[in-house]
């Protein structure tokens, strides 16, 4: 093998390794910043979905339903929805009661710091449950 063939088979240079390390580091930083938001949303989803197994909520008032759901969030240490509600003056968890269903909508968005002056906003829109009222037409 001549010397020019060996030079082409040398492997990555230090600059190429630095680019690879920076790209991998960037994705790890974003993953570690956004990952906990998805873990928290999984807890919110599980809590909201568990409400379908509680038909006694259908006979309560909207205020009582809201209090019961907030107690479940407190027990499961889910503070993200209460934090969003505190930051804004409106209620972020919607509880509606129709003639046939109780609708609980706990959709929210979460913001997290990624690095320097970069923040990430993640919108969770699948935290809605409809509980049928027993005996309703």
Short description:
This protein is of the alpha+beta class and 137 residues long. It has helices at 3-8, 14-50, 62-75, 80-87; strands spanning 94-97, 101-105, 108-115, 118-124, 128-132.
Please specify the SSE layout and strand pairing:
Blueprint: H1 3-8, H2 14-50, H3 62-75, H4 80-87, E1 94-97, E2 101-105, E3 108-115, E4 118-124, E5 128-132
What does this structure look like?
The chain has four helices and five strands; from the N terminus they run H-H-H-H-E-E-E-E-E. By secondary structure, the chain is an alpha+beta fold. The protein has one domain. The strands form two sheets. A three-stranded antiparallel beta sheet has the order 1-2-5, with helices on one face. A two-stranded antiparallel sheet has the order 3-4. The longest helix has 37 residues, at 14-50. It is elongated.
- As a percent range, the share of helical residues equals 40-55%
Please state the structural category.
alpha+beta
Could you spell the SSE succession in H and E letters? HHHHEEEEE
Largest beta-sheet characterization: 3 strands, antiparallel
- How many separate structural domains? 1
Strand order of the largest sheet: 1-2-5
> Outline, from the CA principal axes?
elongated
Strand content of the residues, in percent?
Answer: 15-25%
Q: What is the number of strand segments?
A: 5
């Amino acid at each position: 093998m001549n010397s020019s063939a060996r030079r082409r088979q040398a492997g990555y240079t230090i600059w190429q390794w630095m680019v690879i390390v920076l790209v991998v580091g960037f994705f790890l930083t974003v993953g570690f910043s956004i990952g906990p938001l998805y873990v928290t949303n999984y807890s919110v989803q599980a809590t909201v979905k568990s409400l379908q197994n509680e038909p006694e909520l259908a006979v309560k008032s909207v205020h009582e339903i809201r209090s019961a759901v907030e107690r479940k969030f407190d027990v499961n240490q889910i503070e993200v929805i209460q934090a969003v509600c505190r930051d804004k003056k409106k209620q972020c968890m919607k509880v509606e009661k129709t003639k046939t269903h109780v609708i609980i909508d706990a959709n929210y968005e979460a913001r997290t710091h990624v690095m320097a002056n970069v923040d990430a906003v993640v919108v969770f829109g699948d935290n809605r449950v409809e509980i049928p009222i027993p005996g309703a037409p």
